[in-house]
Amino acid sequence: MTLMNVIYHDPAPRTARLALAFGAGLALPDGPVTVYRPRAGEDFALLDPGRVQMVQGFRPDHDALAQMGWRVGTAPAPAPTALICLPRAKAEGLALIAEAVAQGAQLVLVDGQKTYGVEAVLKALRARVKVAEPVSKAHGKLFWFTPGGADFSDWAAQVATVPDPDLGAFQTLPGVFSADGVDPGSALLARALPESLPERMGDLGAGWGYLAAACLARKGVAEMHLVEAEAQALDLARGNITDARAQFHWADATSCALPVSLGGIVMNPPFHTGRSAQPALGMGFIANAARMLGVRGTLWMVANRHLPYADTLERLFRRVDVLAETPAFRVWQASGPRKTAPTGTRR
Ligand SMILES: C[S@@+](CC[C@H](N)C(=O)[O-])C[C@H]1O[C@@H](n2cnc3c(N)ncnc32)[C@H](O)[C@@H]1O
Q1: Ligand 1 atom closest to Cα of 60?
Q2: Who has greater pLDDT, 317 or 139?
C-alpha cells in the first residue's frame, strides 16, 4: 500500500516528555516494552527497538510504523513495561491501561496531550493508585505508576449494544465511531438508498458495519465489501454481520484496491484525525471510490454540509445529485466515475 495519505504526527512532544522522565531517573524493568496506540511519525528513539512491541490497529499508522522498522501488531502480548499513548476517547484510554495491567505490566507509563484529556485520566488513576509526579511539557503530560495488586478490570473495554429499529442490534466498543448509537448522518444515508442496489457493493470506512447492514437489507446485493482501517471496528463488523455475502478488508480506504470493480459504494467518510479537521481525508476516500467503481458505478455518500466535497465530486464523476439534506448533513449520489483514457479520444 502507499503511505501517501498517512497523517504524520509531530514527534517532538512525546519524545521531549520521555527525555525529561529518563533524565529524572525513570528506569524501565528488564524485558519487553509494549507501546499502545503509537501514531505514524512519532519518535521512540529513546526506547530500545529490540525490546519494543507496538500495538496499533489503525492500518495507516500500523504500516507507517512497520515501515520504519518497528515490530507492530494489532493485539498486545505480556510485557513488564507498558507505554500508553492516550487516544482521544477517555474510555478507550482507560481500557488500554486495564489491558496493560492484564498483560502483566509492572510499570505503566501514560502519555497524552491536554487536548486528549490527559488530566482526566491522571485524576482517575490517582483515585486508585500512587502515581509518580507528572512530567509536563509541550501541552501534555507523562506519568507512571506500579499497579501492585490494584484491580483495573472495571476499566476494561465494555461492549455496548446499539439497537436499530430496522436492522436489529449491533455491538460496539469505546473509541470506535458512533459507539453509543447510530450516527444521524449514516441513518440519513441509509434511508436515502434506493430499494435495489448493484450486485457488487463496497462500504468505505465501514466502522462496526451499520451502512453495510443497511445495504444487505436492500434487494440485489450479491457481494458486500467492508473496508475499514481500524482493526477493532472491523472485528466488531465481523461479529455484527454474519451474512455470507459480506467480505471484510482491513485496509486504508484512500489507497486500497480490490481484485474486482464495484457497482456501488456507500460511505460516511471520516474528516478528522484526532481533533483537527482533515477534509483531505474525505477527498482521498472520494478519489479512491472513483477508482474502485466500474464505469457505470455509483457512489452514495453522506457528509457534514459544511465540508467542501462538491468540487471533488464534480471533478471525478459525470453526474452528481443531492438526494437528501438536513441542517447538518447532505447525502450525495455521484455516478459514472471519470476514468482517464490511456491514449486517444473517447468516441
Ligand atoms: C464517520 S465513520 C463511519 C463509520 C460507519 N460507516 C458508519 O456509518 O457508522 C468513518 C470510519 O472510517 C474509518 N477510517 C478512518 N480512516 C480510514 C482509512 N484511511 N481507511 C479506512 N477506514 C478509515 C474510521 O475508523 C471510521 O470507522
Answers
A1: 19
A2: 317
The structural domains of the chain, with segments of one domain joined by +, span 12-155, 160-337
**Regarding the domain delimited by 160-337, which CATH topology (the fold level of the hierarchy) does it fall under?**
Rossmann fold (3.40.50)
- Classify each residue of 197-222 as buried b or exposed e, where b means 16 or more C-beta atoms within 10 Å of its C-beta: bbebbbbbbbbbbbbbbbbbebeebe
Q: Which residue has the cell 507498558?
A: 82
Ligand 1 in reach of 273 Cβ (< 6 A): no
Atom number in ligand 1 closest to CA 212: 6
Sole residue written with cell 503511505: 3
- The model's confidence at residue 128, banded by pLDDT at 50, 70 and 90, is very high
H/E element holding 277? strand 276-277
Closest ligand 1 atom to 5 CA: 19
Q: Is the CB of 240 under 6 A from ligand 1?
A: no
Q: What is 12-155's CATH number?
A: 3.40.50.150
| Residues 31-41: tens digit of each pLDDT | 999 999 999 98
**pLDDT at 4 (0 to 100):** 43
pLDDT in tens, 160-202: 999 999 999 999 999 899 999 999 999 999 999 999 999 999 9
Rounded to the nearest angstrom, the distance between the alpha carbon of 120 and the centre of ligand 1 is: 26
